[in-house]
Amino acid sequence: MANTTGNKYEGREKGTPNRLTKELRTLLKDILYQELEEIQERLELLEPKKRLGLFIKLMPYALLKTTSISRNINEPLDWS
Description:
By secondary structure, the chain is mostly helical. It has a domain at 19-62. Helices cover 52% and strands 0% of the residues. The chain has two helices and no strands.
């Protein structure tokens, strides 16, 4: 029977992290750290074209993206 009262009787309390998510993040972080230790050696094995392609794909995660700003001639300036 469905609970239509709006009261919560079971389950995690609000703000309690999901245990599986926490364990998965820890596992992925450990794997990432292991790979970072070997990344220089692995990059040197790639041919230059593939290495450059990899850097281009990774750049958005390391550098801020810039956006162009355009202004119309009759548009008032807002310096705030």
